[in-house]
Amino acid sequence: MISERVKSNLKGTFSESILPKIGLFLLVSIVFMAVFAPVLATHDPTRTGYFTEHGTEYPPIGHEFTTQVAQEGEFAEVTVESSSEHVLGTNNVGQDVYSRFVYGARVSILVAIMATTLALLIGVPVGLTAGYYGGRVDDALMRIADTMLAFPALVLALALIGVFGESPVQVPDPIVMAGFADGMPETIPLPGTVTIVSALVIWVWFARVARGEALSLRNQEYVKASKSFGMSDRQILLKHVLPNSLTPIIVLATIQVAVIILLEASLAYLGFSGTTLSWGYEIERGQDILRTRPWVSILPGIGIMLAVISVNLLGDWFRDALDPNIEGSERGA
Amino acid sequence: MSIGKFLVRRILQGVFVIWGVVTILFGLRAVSPGDPATLMLGEGATQELVEHVREEEGLNEPIYAQYVDYLQGLVVGDFGYSWQSNRDVEAMVIERVPATVELAVAATIVAVLIAVPLGVISATRRNQPTDYGATLFSLLGISTPNFWLGLMLILVFGVWFGIPHPTLETSPASLAGISVPYPRSVGYSFFDFPTGRRAVGFSEAFVAVVRDRSFSELGVWLQYIALPAITLGTYFTALITRLTRSGMIDELGKPYVTATRAKGLPAVLIRYKHVLRNTMIPIVTVLGLQMGTLMGGAVITETVFNWPGLGLRLIDALHMRDWPLMQGIIVFIAVAFVVINIVVDGLYTYLNPQVSDE
What we know:
The complex is a heterodimer of chains A (333) and B (358).
Chain A: H1 4-16, H2 19-35, H3 37-40, E1 64-71, E2 74-81, H4 97-133, H5 135-150, H6 153-164, E3 168-172, H7 174-177, E4 187-191, H8 192-217, H9 221-228, H10 233-269, H11 279-286, H12 295-322, H13 324-332
Antiparallel strand pairs in A: 1-2, 3-4
Helix pairs in contact in A: 1-12, 2-4, 2-12, 4-5, 4-8, 4-10, 4-12, 5-8, 6-8, 8-10, 10-11, 10-12, 11-12
Chain B: H1 3-31, H2 36-41, H3 47-56, H4 63-75, H5 89-94, H6 97-124, H7 129-143, H8 146-160, H9 172-175, H10 202-212, H11 216-252, H12 255-262, H13 267-289, H14 291-305, H15 310-320, H16 323-351, H17 353-357
Helix pairs in contact in B: 1-16, 6-7, 6-11, 7-11, 8-11, 8-14, 10-11, 11-13, 11-14, 13-16, 14-15, 15-16
């Protein structure tokens, strides 16, 4: 399936530049954080009420802030100090910022991977079939694709969520179930609707690329030859067309993972994700107190950014290594 | 193919796409939970009243009759009326268009002004510090969630640098510590309550400059739009920088560049007149296709900054489950997308003889 040439290209581009290494390192760290969130977290991320004696949020370690609090019927200015209990402080409902940051990676990564997989499973078969057979099926697909693309992704996602609601799915946490992290929540809420909706929004990109590949492959000599040997269309699609279309599909899938991380964050920020355990939601929560307690919003944003950067760097690496056109053009310069 | 034939074909395709968008939205509304009459009247309405409204609105008719009704309305520009405010949807859409167009155009201008020179410099000084800087910038730009970027801009410029700026005003509700429903904005409080209009729009500022030779309105407008435009424009700045860089590198390797160089043309002239021009043609097409991303970004940016455009109204409509308004706004956005892409493709065909010969 993956040829030797591709493998050596991947290796070559990986060792030539530092960027794929950074991307891989970031992604591995984030996935590690997501998987072992219950072990890495210091507090139950859903537990509220970690406030200081003044009833305010904790600032991150090494920081302090002054604020007005009511004392004996009067307002008094107090200086709030950080606590070693809460490394990165707490948010406006008294949740531990660090623990929520760690758990936020789970939602982000899981939604992105599941939605991309789902979109692949819908888009690739549809696209391959349409491109291979051509004719009416193909025309219909292209018109559907045009229509889907006339919706901005975020707008389409919002409209679909308006229909399906925004219920989170409670998924049991294997790490906690296995007894590695006592006191952590036994289930994590995953935004199920957001996952499905994201897949419905992006499948059409996979369909378009797969169609283009099938269209060009169906006239290749070896495909025609297989047909004359009596191979069925189904066998040809699976044995010849699919494996040879994989390269651009893989590149696209990487880009789409980044798109979905941003989409999920945006939906959560707008309050449509259904789960509160998400980086996007955390940014929204912190924005009311942005001026005095900015740490609540800053950190989750960095999380989203690093996740997207890691995936984009890997996407660039795959594209440079796998796409012969781009490689050739780089050489020509 | 002649331009005329091309246009007719593209417009027919466009009409088909719009019909698809309208139909999908109508289908979504039909399967969405909740009875429209109840949504219109509120929870406390009597059964009698609900029945009366259902009858009056044609909600008791079969779904295909409602669909035909809705399509007929759209053809003559009647988008129905909002379930929440009882106002005409057309009016509610049109009054919000200028703010969104201003924001989108300003963001595009910011993006092109920064990205094109940056991409050219990056391509002509490959593997030098400037190139690495530009590459890093564009990587960060396409990876930063724009709502977070907007908040950080407010934090850095408004709070830390203390630059006097309309963004320093928080909305009256959040200033009073009242918890307000979504969408919550920390940005501008230039909704002139209760009319909900902006303090100053571009048209007012423009009129003031031309008629009264007064630049203060324009100054205010620029103050308002600067941060939202940067927030929305950053992704596109990054994207165009990348495209310009790789496009320029491609073009610079072509024989005609060597030829013009041999002819003795100055390098700057070659770069900006010949190479950049050829690079820009495909970039314009990509930008046309990215209009959807721009509109999605506008929804978010408007929410962050309380910018009174279509996006903010769309979010309001979604939270209120106000389907006619939602449908109206989305159909409008889809029409804009289709029209812009027809114009872009037309320009492309016009500019590129290879395409029009086919």
